[in-house]
Specification:
Blueprint: H1 2-26, H2 29-41, H3 51-94, E1 100-104, E2 110-121, E3 124-129, E4 132-135, E5 139-143, H4 145-165
Antiparallel strand pairs: 1-2, 1-5, 2-3, 3-4
Length: about 170
């Protein structure tokens, strides 16, 4: 019989511990300190908590608070990095306006033309090429208009030479 009662007691203690651990994770440090003070004030005077136990609990409080602060800092940093990346991509897309670009449309067709606008839709940068819309990451080439004019003039001169020779 004594074995059964100790097993039952252990089972109850472990489930209570799991519930207490879940509760402690959801509390902030001020509430945790209030609970610790209340525990110290209401402890059994015949078996008081040792100094090492109090220090251990305080250490756990500070560790928990440090982890929460670190988590908040990392979330903020991640959000800032996403904003910076979006701003850089937007600046890159804006520099394409007036330039010749080649890309894939949302309908999966390849298009080429002059970029005449940029917008952000659902957190994604969209580039307007003629009357089509492409995601920024679907742009495969961007050419400077002056290079295109030079290329066109060179090609035109070659065709003129061929006609003159023929």
């Amino acid at each position: 019989m004594s074995t059964t009662s100790s097993v039952t007691s252990t089972s109850t203690d472990s489930s209570t511990y799991a519930t207490t651990a879940d509760l402690a994770a959801s509390l902030d440090s001020d509430t945790f300190l209030e609970l610790l003070i209340t525990e110290i004030q209401n402890q059994d005077p015949m078996e008081p908590m040792s100094n090492s136990e109090i220090c251990e609990q305080l250490s756990q409080i500070w560790e928990l608070q440090s982890n929460m602060d670190l988590s908040d800092t990392l979330e903020s940093l991640s959000s800032n990095l996403e904003s910076v990346a979006l701003a850089q991509n937007l600046a890159s897309a804006n520099s394409m306006i007036g330039r010749l670009a080649v890309g894939e449309t949302e309908e999966n067709g390849e298009i080429a033309g002059y970029v005449n606008g940029v917008t952000i839709e659902d957190g994604k940068i969209k580039v307007y090429i003629a009357e089509h819309t492409c995601d920024l990451e679907d742009i495969s080439e961007v050419l400077d208009a002056s290079l295109l004019e030079t290329y066109t003039e060179t090609e035109s001169e070659e065709e003129t030479e061929e006609v003159g020779e023929g």
